[in-house]
Design brief:
This protein has helices spanning 20-34, 52-68, 80-89, 91-94, 101-110, and strands at residues 3-5, 10-16, 39-46, 73-76, 96-98. Strands 1-2-3-4-5 form a five-stranded mixed β-sheet, with helices on both faces. With 112 residues, it is of the alpha/beta class.
């Protein structure tokens, strides 16, 4: 599985294209439901396509992590094609986005 407990309070999801991304987002949501103290970093480096179902899962995960659990959710490693989807849909304005995994993890640890 591409989801790993990076630290006591940080869950790192190294996402891959469908069907794996669907399973990973579901697994992350389940872990965040069980442990409400988790910040989440999603690495999109291996994602080349996002469908509407996965966008809906991302929005539900955002609501769970940031609103229900009052924790942080960061996305990183977004390529140009997927970034275009984020721009067109307005997702770039509602998600906290870092350049890569290391800067995303640093941002979570420093509270940025």
């Amino acid at each position: 599985m591409a989801v790993e407990q990076w630290s006591e309070t940080v869950l790192l999801g190294n996402l891959a294209d469908d069907p794996q991304v669907t399973d990973d987002l579901t697994a992350i949501a389940e872990q965040c439901t069980e442990n409400t103290k988790l910040d989440v970093l999603l690495n999109f480096a291996n994602i080349n396509y996002l469908n509407s179902s996965n966008i809906a899962k991302l929005l539900k995960l955002r609501k769970l992590v940031t609103i229900t659990n009052e924790r942080r959710l960061k996305l990183c490693g977004i390529n140009r094609h997927v970034w275009g989807v984020f721009l067109v849909t307005g997702l770039d304005r509602i998600f906290d986005i870092a350049d890569d995994v290391s800067s995303g993890l640093t941002g979570l640890q420093m509270g940025q």
